[in-house]
Design goal:
Elements lengths: L18 H13 L3 E13 L3 E7 L6 E7 H5 L10 E11 L4 E11 L2 H17 L17 E6 L4 H13 L5 E5 L7 H13 L4 E8 L13 H9 L4 E5 L8 H4 L2 E2 L3 H8 L3 H34 L2 H4 L1 H44 L1 H6 L4 E4 L16 E6 L2 E6 L4
Parallel strand pairs: 3-5, 6-7, 6-8, 8-9, 9-10
Antiparallel strand pairs: 1-2, 1-4, 2-3, 4-5, 11-12, 12-13
Helix pairs in contact: 4-8, 5-6
Length: about 400
């Protein structure tokens, strides 16, 4: 067992390693890596006597590896690979102990065909669609008239001029915030993503257009990069994708809020046509004027019909008719009141006659009289009197007094 205080070679200045020893240790460590398969794009192809030196770079990042291959390995390919081709290589790390440099020896090399690339993109499209990134429900509506338009395009590209010129033909006051970036190659994804994030952070940028003209299938691959697709789905500003031509369908077309067939088509989608809008306003004004005129004519006709009625044609006629009706009603009421009074007077006279006939006064007028004692009690039979009693006798026209002289 080693003592804790044991100094290992190379860890202290008192026990340094020789250069050869360091190089040998590195060689032994790298040898453990074995053979691996690597995918990338050929940036350089330099054939020399017996060997071909290659530079393989990452398709999305600025990273590259130096490779070398026996010429027979490269020459056996059909068709021959060229600079810019996407390849799949089997390599073995090779540390040159003498010079202390690392290279990778190519054992096998395969060109990645369009079919394989398209199959990979289709698999990625299916995966992203399953996550809901392409759903219509999450797509945002483009603004009618954006305050400022974000434009991501190639430096001095035709796509940039097409979008700006055609947009300003439609709406001369259209304002742009342009970001010129790499739109193909290893820097495209990073620069497009950075520009997209920067424009999304600007408050007055209401829509972002990503435009690129046509190109080979491989040139458009950055616009199918998974990280870029997810970024487009994540930002808040609506995105219009105008990549390539009508037949080109990179994956950004599926996630964008609107897919324009060309940069010129994108210009038509992001701003209204001022001439068309003026024409629409004029048409709307004419329609409103026509509707208003028709309404006025209709109301005028209705007013004419109303004014032609007798009551309005001769208002005095209506008043005269009402006066006549009132006079007839007043006469009718008067007649009914007079008749009612006469009837009631007749009833009253009959009742008075009946009462008179039944009253004591009526009896007196027929010759009868009422005899009372001096105290006023009515005498009903002779037994109630005696000679010398004073009595009172009432006849129809008055009362007199008398004295009973004999029984």
């Amino acid at each position: 067992m080693e003592s804790p205080n044991t100094v290992k070679p190379g860890q202290e200045p008192e026990a340094p390693l020789a250069v050869y020893s360091v190089s040998t240790l590195i060689s032994e460590y790298i040898a453990r890596l074995g053979t691996i398969w690597v995918e990338g794009q050929l940036a350089e192809v330099n054939p020399r006597r017996g060997l071909t030196y290659l530079t393989l770079r990452d398709t999305d990042r600025d990273v590259s590896l130096s490779l070398y291959a026996p010429s027979g390995v490269v020459e056996s390919l059909s068709p021959q690979i060229e600079q810019g081709a996407r390849v799949l290589v089997q390599v073995k790390a090779d540390w040159w102990t003498k010079r202390g440099s690392l290279q990778f020896k190519v054992l096998q090399i395969r060109a990645i065909g369009l079919g394989e690339l398209m199959a990979r993109l289709e698999a990625l499209r299916i995966m992203l669609a399953a996550e809901g990134l392409f759903d219509e429900s999450r797509k945002r509506e483009l603004p009618f008239l954006p305050r400022r338009i974000g434009l991501i395009c190639g430096q001095g590209s035709d796509a940039m001029h097409d979008v700006i010129e055609n947009a300003r033909r439609r709406w001369p006051d259209a304002q742009f915030e342009v970001r010129e970036v790499a739109v193909q190659g290893i820097h495209a994804v990073k620069q497009v993503s950075s520009a997209l994030t920067e424009l999304d952070a600007l408050d007055d940028v209401d829509v972002i257009v990503i435009a690129r003209g046509g190109g080979a299938f491989e040139d458009l691959l950055p616009f199918s990069d998974e990280s870029l697709i997810r970024l487009v789905a994540k930002i808040e500003t609506p995105v219009v994708a105008a990549i390539g031509h009508e037949e080109d369908r990179p994956l950004i077309d599926y996630v964008a809020d609107f897919r324009a067939s060309t940069p010129t088509d994108a210009a038509r989608r992001i701003v209204p046509d001022v001439l068309q809008e003026l024409s629409d306003i004029s048409s709307a004004r004419n329609r409103a004027t026509l509707i208003l005129r028709n309404q006025i004519e209709r109301f005028t006709q209705q007013l004419t019909v109303v004014r032609s009625r007798p009551a309005l044609a001769n208002p005095a006629l209506l008043i005269d008719q009402r006066l006549k009706d009132n006079s007839q009603l007043r006469n009718l009421i008067h007649s009914e009141v007079v008749a009612t009074i006469k009837l009631e007077n007749s009833h009253l006279r009959g009742t008075r006659a009946t009462l008179r006939a039944l009253s004591p006064q009526g009896t007196l007028e027929r010759g009868f009289s009422i005899v009372r004692t001096e105290s006023g009690e009515i005498i009903r039979n002779i037994a109630e009197t005696k000679a010398g009693d004073k009595i009172r006798i009432r006849v129809s026209d008055g009362e007199t007094k008398a004295t009973i002289t004999e029984d």
